[in-house]
Amino acid sequence: MKIVVCIKEVLDVTFPFALDPQGLRPLEEDVFRRANPADCGAVEVALSIREKLGGEVVLLGYGPQRVESTLRDCLAMGADRAVRVWDERVDAGSQAKAHILARAVQALGADLVLCGARSLDEGSGETPAALAEFLGFAQVTAVTDLEIALDGKKATASRKLEKGRRVAIECPLPAVLALEEGVQQPRYAALSSLLEAKRAQVDLLDQERLGLDAAEVRRLDSLRRQVRRALPRPRPKKTFNLESGLTAEQRMELMMSGGARQSKSDLLEGSPQDVGRKLADILQEKVLKKS
After folding, report:
1. At how many degrees (to 10) do helices 94-108 and 126-135 cross?
2. Distance of alpha carbon 122 from its chain centroid, rounded?
3. N or C: which terminus of the chain has fewer CB atoms within 10 Å of its end residue's CB?
């Protein structure tokens, strides 16, 4: 069984970065990149299937040469080889990218295609569905658990629904499965594997080798266009409620200081009779203070 895992390079948002004020894009000198977390989980699922049924795990990435570093990081987990798809003459959006990836999957002759359900940056989840459509494969999205039959002809996937519900879906292979993040925890690569992956060759499939029609790619890319780019709305500031028993002077003091004192709370412990007496004393004290 040949399993192709689609890998997308995304920004590592754990590191702060600055934005270009004109295009609102991250400045290249400030960003670090990594493999999409959901795609790393898909690699782990593919390796588990290979350990059980045998076969080959091929990593497939789209992008310029810097993507090879991300592919090598996943290659160190134990995948057999990595393939990069790219043509600098084509600025592909999600639909066009799915078309190009589909041609690459056809060239590789995959029996199963695994993807992350959504990427960390855009999070649209369009690519797996579009990829299955271009390939003519069955597809299951939001997969949280996966079992492949021993004969390698069908898959049984547990699909996430709303409100925590799950549904089991059986589909024939070949198929495209979009896996939710956290399906399986990606394994840590050994140092020897990391060093070996750094020396591994990453094959390149360009427009000529895939036989792509540039006009068709441009047509697919024109199906969706970016209207504008805007910063997210600022998070609302936490507000506080002033206690009703405060004087006007105390209210103004708290408002000028920018916060209010946290209300004190006491835990009443003991037998029901003791707790009742303590509660009565507290209520009586509060009433006496107000009067």
Report:
1. 50
2. 9
3. C
Domains of the chain: 2-221 (3.40.50.620), 248-290 (no CATH)
- Give the burial class of 209: count Cβ atoms within 10 A of its Cβ; 0-12 exposed, 13-18 middle, 19 or more buried: middle
Q: How far is CA 226 from CA 13, 48, 96, in A?
A: 22, 39, 14
State if pTM tops 0.85: no
Nearest by Cα to 137 from 109, 172, 97: 172
Cα(129)–Cα(177) distance, integer angstroms: 9
Of 66-75, 117-126, 215-224, give the range with the top mean pLDDT. Answer: 66-75
Name the strand (E) or helix (H) holding 61: strand 56-62
Q: Residue 265: which pLDDT band, with cuts at 50, 70 and 90?
A: low
Reduce the secondary structure of 119-146 to three states and give it as a string: CCCCCCCHHHHHHHHHHCCEEEEEEEEE
Contacts of 229 (CB under 8 A, 6+ apart): 23, 24, 25
Q: Which tokens sit at 210?
A: 């895939």
The percent helix, strand, coil of the chain (3-state, each to 5) is 35, 20, 40
Residue among 89, 61, 67 at smallest CA distance from 217: 89
Instruction: Give the count of beta carbons closer than 10 Å to the beta carbon of residue 288.
Output: 8
Per-residue CA distances from 207 to 91, 203, 222, 225 (Å):
12, 13, 18, 22
Positive/negative CA dihedral, 177, 180, 181, 183: negative
DSSP code of residue 162: G
At 247, give phi and psi (nearest 5°): -75, 170
pLDDT tens-digit series, residues 174-220: 999 999 998 889 999 999 999 999 999 999 998 888 888 888 888 88
Measured in degrees and rounded to the nearest 5, phi and psi for residue 55 equal 115, -155
